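User: Teach me something about this protein's shape.
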Amino acid sequence: MPYLQFDRDKLFVKSLSQRKDKVFIERDHVPVNASVAKPLSGLGQKTMNELADRLILAKKTNKSRMLTFGAHAIKNGLAPVFIHLMKEGWVTHLATNGAGIIHDWEFAFQGHSSEDVRANVDRGEFGIWQETGTYLNFAIVAGAWKGLGYGESVGAFVGNDGVEVPSQEELVEEIREQAAQNPAQAAAAADMLDRVRHFDLKPGFLSVPHPYKKFGVQAAAYRLGVPFTSHPMIGHDIIYTHPMNYGAAIGRAAQRDFLVFAQQVMNLDGGVYMSVGSAVMSPMIFEKSLSMSQNLHIQEGKHIDNHYMVIVDLQESHWDWSQGEPPMDNPDYYLRYNKSFNRMGGQMRYVTADNRDFLLTLVKTLEERK
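Assistant: First, the predicted structure itself:
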């Protein structure tokens, strides 16, 4: 017997123009040449110098240079820094969670983000916003139909200032043509048909201007051809509150992003992996991706051993991770991100730092070594 489900079509959804936000990107963005608020510790700077040397070598040898980060790095206004690192070729892959995608899009769309969670939950308003829910969800449905990943779908939507809406007749015909030979594409077209029909979307170009797109990291990645992947969890992000949300398309696009991420890990021997402020998502997807990559490398008589990982967070660690894992009665044992990466072979370094200070110091150190 099926369980009762919440009906999102009954929600009273307000416009983003009625929401009070706390962060304004033009006012609060971090320029590439901004001053560091708190310099890294001696050990932190030593690791930074080592990281810069490894990045320079990885760039010369065309090895992966991956940067995975939590949503706060976007909310903290670091878009110019991420875009600079891409333009200069220091990173070959960016990855974040679903919230990072949302903050980045809202900055590009309206120039501000970050609502008052406590107050808005109390009012039954948190996350239930028309533009974010409609446009991001439909961008992902449309992107999945076109064979794009989650982050790439949003990057294309921002970069193109909208998306093409096919007619219902076109989609029905595509489903019929693809069903026998390419059922996955038929399913993606069916997802698109469901959303177009449910919301009575008219065929043609759906124009959605993004006046602040110069601050859009996803748009820049799409323009520069740098993979920017998203690794969401169902129900974690505000777009799941909106009736436009469609789990099948989310899964289709996010699965593609996971496999794009794993393909970058395939080229990580001699490369660099940076994890900045992502305590759960980054270590979880990395360990699975590395395991799959090792599986294929071992089949060819190879092994990924020369990978360099730098993990950054605010939590103090009092353990020397080069000595292996601490005992279970040591609180550092429960710093899951350190423990997970420490099990991944290669070399792992941990730096206690604010994400702004770390990334600004990274840019400065790389510039000095050019």
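Now, about its shape. The mean pLDDT is 96. DSSP finds 15 helices and ten strands in the chain. If you'd like, I can walk through any region in more detail.
User: That's plenty for now, thanks!
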